[in-house]
Design brief:
CATH architecture: 2-Layer Sandwich
Number of strands: 6
Distance between the termini: 33 Å
Shape: globular
Strand order of the largest sheet: 1-2-3-4-5-6
CATH class: Alpha Beta
Strand content: 15-25%
CATH superfamily: STAS domain
Structural class: alpha/beta
Helix content: 25-40%
Order of helices and strands: EEHEHEHEE
């Protein structure tokens, strides 16, 4: 399956499938993301890497909330890697079902775990 416009899809490991948007999210992401998530094996976790996708507007945050709902509807285990601490705090506050991680250069907190492929990320409260 070819990557959808606006996404770079990395699957270098057996787990998880990694989706990396190439820019800010918005309404344009709905169709390509649905197509990509439908193509993921249901037994694999999916990491939505937002390190290159800032969360500076309501439309960008809404796209992440929509992705969380879509993954739940498809029965997928979604994890979100935010590019900075404020973005991770915002997503955690909004109550995503998915664990939210911050891509800060700190070791995982007590008992927490880093998403695969994201060493040094720190889990938010929702990921514990």
């Amino acid at each position: 399956m070819a990557p959808a416009r606006g996404f770079v899809l990395f699957e270098p490991h057996a787990e998880p499938a990694r989706l990396t948007p190439t820019g800010p999210l918005g309404p344009w992401v709905m169709h390509p993301l649905r197509r990509l998530l439908e193509g993921v094996d249901g037994g694999r976790p999916v990491l939505l890497d937002l390190c290159r996708a800032p969360l500076g507007s309501p439309r960008e945050v809404a796209a992440v909330l929509w992705a969380d709902d879509l993954a739940a509807d498809l029965g997928l285990s979604l994890e979100v890697l935010a590019g900075d601490e404020p973005a991770a705090e915002l997503l955690d506050f909004l109550g995503l079902r998915a664990p939210v991680y911050s891509a800060v250069s700190a070791p995982p907190s007590r008992g927490g775990r880093s998403p695969a492929g994201a060493p040094g990320s720190r889990p938010r409260a929702s990921a514990r």
